[in-house]
């Protein structure tokens, strides 16, 4: 399968948001199960609305670079934020449409983002993800790309 990566354009917005929601639906189901419905509702609320807002904000932010992976259509996207002072870059968002997963789209986006960060003088790349079962495919992709995970635990309690 041919994968090309290009700079995000505003006309990609609907496709990107749609694939992000499809890709992250199982993640949110997993988070709700792990956290419990009460805490999940208090911390996340309507995840589709929140994710739509957050994805669009990342795509629109001047300090964020965004790209789309294209096969026969927009198949995935990635955003990167740089911290030049710390010489770090964060692969902030990455999603691949579920019917395009396991085809190298995510790996291609990771490599592309790393090349961009390297060209910008960044010395360390960061990717954050969840530790719940729904994020297992993301963790596997990042580990396959050579990233080292540092476990962090967040505790929640409804008050």
Automatic annotation (TrEMBL):
User: CDD domains from the entry?
Assistant: NAT_SF
Give the superkingdom in one word.
Answer: Bacteria
Q: Which Gene3D superfamilies match?
A: 3.40.630.30
A GO molecular function assigned to this protein is:
N-acetyltransferase activity
Query: Which SUPFAM superfamilies does the entry mention?
Result: Acyl-CoA N-acyltransferases (Nat)
Which keywords has UniProt assigned to this entry?
Answer: Transferase
Pfam families membership: Acetyltransf_1 (PF00583)
Domain (N-acetyltransferase): give its ranges.
Answer: 3-159
Q: Which InterPro entries match?
A: Acyl_CoA_acyltransferase, GNAT_dom, NAT_camello-type
* Species lineage: Bacteria, Bacillati, Actinomycetota, Actinomycetes, Streptosporangiales
UniProt name for this protein: GNAT superfamily N-acetyltransferase
